[in-house]
Design brief:
Length: 72
Amino acid sequence: MSTYSITVKPGSSQEKILTGPDGALTVYLHASAHDGEANAALIKLLAKHFKVPKTSITITRGAHSRRKIVEF
């Protein structure tokens, strides 16, 4: 199981994943941070990027924050 520190930037014009020098990820999403839309979009984008099923991805910390800890 891998653990990632992620900073989410909702409402972006592009959807992309950038890796920082410390290994932390910054994820830009089209979805807004409203009613869990950004969390759902984050899980979908991570599943596609890392080629894992969406059901294997869990937001363990920061479900209501831009800084999240995700495991899969």
